[in-house]
Design a protein that fits this description.
This protein is of the alpha/beta class. Helices cover 38% and strands 16% of the residues. It has helices spanning 17-31, 50-57, 83-89, 99-104, 109-121, 134-138, 142-153, 181-196, 218-222, 239-247; strands at 6-10, 40-44, 62-66, 93-96, 125-130, 163-167, 206-210, 229-232. Strand 2, helix 2 (50-57) and strand 3 (62-66) form a beta-alpha-beta unit. The longest helix has 16 residues, at 181-196. Bound molecules: 2-phosphoglycolic acid (PGA).
Length: 250
């Protein structure tokens, strides 16, 4: 089965209205020069600008997504936003279970699963993040940790259309370090096998790699077997840095 890659930018807690719109405008100008992009392109900005950026991207090849959502539709959850609100604002994807949320907000696999189910319920595509810590890697536990996270974070009713899995080794995020291509390929093959036991269309699920992806390493990482795109943090913050990564999928 041929998989359409997804190149996604995770802006984390970066960008005010003006500069965010500017980056999107620059990306749209570049994308408009490509007749039929061969990949899906996504930006997940801070929730406050989802509405505005989604309006800018309407009818274009760039989609907008959230970085997190609450499992519930609505209710007494001060400071939270629901998947339905993201959808209402124009989002079409939502990242869940990013390691920064697992660490900073103590999110368990169970919570991540509930959030992914909320995203799907709202009509969004869930990007479920998994990844081992340095200690786990050095202790030879990587594949076990990934199995555990994939199995327990995977939403009920996951399909190749509504769910994306992003492998992001915690020690590679924002550090400039990346696993070897062999290590990435090994984990991705393992995730594919793990998913095959859990869903019927596992061969069509997009498996992204994330963690210090940049223009210089993207061609090799994105070209690996079972790597169907990337989740990019720092290098997605400017059009100049992000475009060469997008080009690996285009
Ligand atoms: P990075 O972040 O590209 O800055 O390492 C990736 C991520 O956290 O999604």
């Amino acid at each position: 089965m041929s998989i359409r890659p997804l190149i996604a930018g995770n802006w984390k807690m970066n960008g005010l209205k003006g500069e965010s719109s500017e980056v999107i405008r620059e990306l749209l100008a570049k994308v408009s020069t490509v007749a039929n992009p061969g990949c899906d392109i996504l930006i997940c900005p801070p929730a406050l600008v989802v509405n505005e950026l989604a309006a800018l991207c309407e009818g274009t090849s760039i989609s907008i997504g959230g970085q997190d959502c609450h499992p519930n539709v609505s209710g007494a959850h001060t400071g939270d936003i629901s998947a339905e609100m993201l959808k209402d604002a124009g989002a079409s994807y939502c990242i869940v279970g990013h390691s920064e949320r697992r660490t900073d907000h103590g999110e368990s696999n169970e919570t991540v699963k509930a959030k992914a189910e909320a995203a799907i319920r709202a009509g969004l595509i869930a990007i479920v993040c998994v990844g081992e810590t340095l200690e786990e890697r050095e202790g030879g536990k990587t594949l076990n940790v990934i199995s555990e996270q994939v199995k327990n974070s995977l939403p009920e009713g996951a399909t190749a259309e509504n769910t994306v899995i992003a492998y992001e080794p915690v020690w590679a995020i924002g550090t400039g370090k990346t696993p070897t291509p062999q290590d990435v390929a090994e984990v991705h093959a393992h995730m594919r096998a793990e998913l095959s036991a859990l869903m019927t269309d596992a061969n069509g699920v997009r498996l992204l790699y994330g963690g210090s992806v940049k223009g210089s390493n993207a061609p090799e990482l994105m070209g690996l077997e079972n790597v169907d795109g990337g989740l990019v943090g720092g290098a997605s913050l400017t059009a100049e840095d992000f475009w060469p990564i997008i080009e690996t999928g285009i």
